[in-house]
Hints:
By secondary structure, this protein is mainly β. The protein has one helix at about 1-15, and strands at about 20-30, 35, 40-45, 50-60, 65-70, 70-85, 90-110, 115-140, 145-150, 160-175, 175-185, 200, 205-214. It is about 5% helix and about 65% strand. The longest helix has 14 residues, at about 1-15.
Amino acid sequence: xxxxxxxxxxxxxxxxxxxxxxxxxxxxxxxxxxxxxxxxxxxxxxxxxxxxxxxxxxxxxxxxxxxxxxxxxxxxxxxxxxxxxxxxxxxxxxxxxxxxxxxxxxxxxxxxxxxxxxxxxxxxxxxxxxxxxxxxxxxxxxxxxxxxxxxxxxxxxxxxxxxxxxxxxxxxxxxxxxxxxxxxxxxxxxxxxxxxxxxxxxxxxxxxxxxxxx
Length: 214
């Protein structure tokens, strides 16, 4: 009976905690892709310099909390290669897609001055690619062929998981919480690995983010 009473009390305590809904966005501090060139092959990236999406925060007692985000970014890259000779070949490939990042974070807020509380956070995150499309144009002896694919040869994994940690400040202004923070993610695997070694996903990710929750 005591165990049941304790369980019901704990459930009621959790349900009574305020839940914040809002939006989080910011700027990546690292490139999503690393690109390079050699004598016959050239990669170039066109990743957008922003990240944005909804967030939910469960505010628990004693400065604890749990946050879940769904952060979106768009990326793209192109490659160009050429060979000379009797059957000279030129290949131009353009790839675009979206990456969705889903961090699940445990947070601890320190006691600070009124309405301003520094915090630290740590947890896990999943990153999933969507809408991946590669358009390829190949010209051989002045004859051009076009094709497209959703599975380019340099694709290694559509989904990867990583460890996240960060720190920031929770500023309460009337009924809005403003949370600027710095966040670091170490991904366990690369989304892209080019056989030539000229294109790779960055496994170390830094972000400056600002959240607005109600």
